[in-house]
Amino acid sequence: MIELACPECKHTFDAHTVIGEGLLTMRPQPGDMTVCLHCAEILQFEANGLRLADAVDLAELDEDVLDELALARHAIRTMRYQHTLRRE
């Protein structure tokens, strides 16, 4: 797998996990969505990298997918906030 970077925060991705039962062996395809584990931005895979998902991309998603992305973003932000509190 090639190493990818978040276009928003430049955090490097070296692994990807597909959310869903029985999908762990799938590789991301162009058009698939992910969430950066560092900044919680919603990203879209392209043939040669990642880009920030825009309003058009999000409008095309099913409500269930939007809910999963929102839960993932919330979990990442909560984890980062708790980590920050422990460091203080």
Name the features.
88 residues; alpha+beta; three-stranded antiparallel β-sheet; two-stranded antiparallel sheet; 2 helices; globular
Descriptive notes:
- With 88 residues, the chain is α+β, with helices and mostly antiparallel strands.
- It has one domain.
- It has helices at residues 55-59, 63-87; strands at residues 4-5, 12-13, 33-35, 42-46, 49-52.
- It has a three-stranded antiparallel β-sheet. The chain has a two-stranded antiparallel ribbon with strand order 1-2.
- It is globular, with a radius of gyration of 14 Å.
- The chain starts with a strand and ends with a helix.
At a glance:
With 88 residues, the protein is α+β, with helices and mostly antiparallel strands. It contains two helices and five strands, in the order βββββαα.
